[in-house]
Amino acid sequence: MDNARPLPRDFYHRSTLLVARDLLGARLVRIADDQRVSGIILETEAYVGEDDQASHARAGRTKRTQIMYGPPGFAYVYFTYGKHWLFNCVTEEEGYPAAVLIRAIQPEEGTEFIAQNRAGRPREEWTNGPAKLCQALAIDGSLKGVDLCSPESPLFLEKGETFPPSSVTKSPRVGLNFVPEPWKSKSWRFLVEKL
DNA sequence: AGCACGATTAACT
DNA sequence: GTTAATCGTGCTC
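C-alpha cells for the assembled complex are given below, as produced in the milestone run.
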C-alpha cells in the first residue's frame, strides 16, 4: 500500500459509521513550520444527518454547517466554549450533512512541535482530547474547509496502523448531556484500547 | 441588537 | 465532584 499519500475521497464517501471505525489507526498529518507533525488516531465519533440531535446539522443548512453538506473529504473545524477548536472530517454524499470528530491521537512525528504547543502538560495529556489535539497540531479556524485529499494541503490523513478488531470498542458519544434519546445513547464513538 | 448555550479543558473544593 | 473561562453561532424580539 502507498502510505505516504492522503486517503482518497472515496474513503470518506461512505457510511459515516464505517469511516469513523476505519479512521482508527489512520495517521493525522499536519504540515507546520515545513515539517510533518502527526499522530495515530485512537478515538473518533460519528455525527450523522439532520435527524441526529447531537449534530450541529440539526439546525439545518447554515453558514456554520454548510461545509458538512459539501462533498466528502474536507475539514469541518469549529470553535466552542469560547476557547476550543475541534476537527472533523466531512463524510457521505454531497448534500447529506455528516462528519467524523477526531477525539484522540497518539503523537508520532514532530513531538517537539507538539510539546511546545502543549507546554507544561504531561505527555499523556498532549493529544488525549478533541480540543487538546487541535492545540497540539495548531489546528484552528484557518483550516476550515481544507481539502483532506490533496497532498498540497497543510492537513490530511494517511493510512497508518491496522489494529485488530478485538482492540476496538464502541460506546455512546460523550459531552451530550442534554441531547434527547435515542441520539444520546447511540454507540457512535469508536476507541482503540491501549496496550 | 440582545441572549443563551456549547461535540471541552483545566483548575478548583 | 464542581465550575469558570470566553466567544461564535443561531434564535428571538
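Strands of chain A lie at 27-32, 35-48, 75-80, 84-90, 98-109, 155-158, 168-171, 189-192. Residues 45, 47, 54-56, 78, 80-84, 86, 88, 101, 103, 121, 129-132, 173-176, 178-179 of chain A lie near DNA strand B (CB under 10 Å from a C1'). Further analysis is deferred to the final report.
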